[in-house]
Amino acid sequence: MPLIPEEPQIHEKAQGPRATPASGRTAPTPRPVPGPRPAAPPRPGRPGPARPAPPAQRASRDSAAAKPGPSGPAAPAAAPATTQIQLIPASPEGALDAAEEAVDLLLDSGRTPGDVLVITTGDPHPWAAHELSFGDAAYWAQHDAGDDVFYADAAVASRAASRPVVVVALNGGPEASAVAALSAAHARAGALLIVCGDPQRINSLLGAGV
Question: H or E segment at 204?
Fold first, then answer.
């Protein structure tokens, strides 16, 4: 009687190792930005008659999970004594681009998008203008989600909650806007305050007790 060859045993394929998310790292001080640079294209694009898809959110470089935001505007807390202040020289025309570069450096160094608040004193950031075109409620819903960089004008920055890093772009506007922006930023910066503008003017405002 012929022998039947034994059927080979099928072994279950072993699963590969799971990727371990990198631990958060402290953001180094952003490099100074020399003078104005060509204007960066608006991130959200031009809004059409119908509402387009919302601007793509910045992805954290270390794939950190998004943190839930507050349910509503929170009362600002006084900036702790350990808050570092970094000045980035820039003209009013180049301040917004300098702030954008600072944000990119923060994200590249491990900060999550929800860690960063950007305040402008002149024209609003294109993202803020885009969201506000659909109403105040939609705009602040993005803030409450707390999972992306949030851009606010100096006039409404007092409604924003505290974040680990606050970036101020002195991109024009009246002196009162600069004072309001620096005051709100200093009160909300948990670890790092970055100010993009004329250093002499910034030091004067900060020296006045802003």
Answer: helix 199-207
Distant-in-sequence, close-in-space partners of 115: CB < 8 Å, separation ≥ 6: 106, 163, 164, 165
Distance CA 195, CA 173 (A): 15
Using CB atoms within 10 A of its CB, is residue 74 exposed (0-12), middle (13-18) or buried (19+)?
middle
Residue 83 corresponds to which tokens in the numbers above?
Answer: 């808050």
Instruction: Between 12 and 189, name the one with better pLDDT.
Output: 189
Taking the C-alpha atoms of residue 59 and residue 80, their distance in angstroms, rounded to an integer, is 28
Show the CA angle centred on residue 110, arms to residues 43 and 72, nearest 5°: 65
- Tokens standing for residue 96: 């917004």
Residue pair 151/121 in contact (Cβ under 8 Å)? The answer is no
The torsion angle over the Cα atoms of residues 157, 160, 164 and 167, rounded to 10 degrees, is -20
The SS3 call for residue 115 is helix
pTM above 0.70, yes or no: no
- For 112, 120, 132, 149, the CA distances from 47, given in Å and listed in that order, are 27, 21, 11, 20
pLDDT of the residue at 207: 72
Radius of gyration over alpha carbons of the chain, in Å? 23
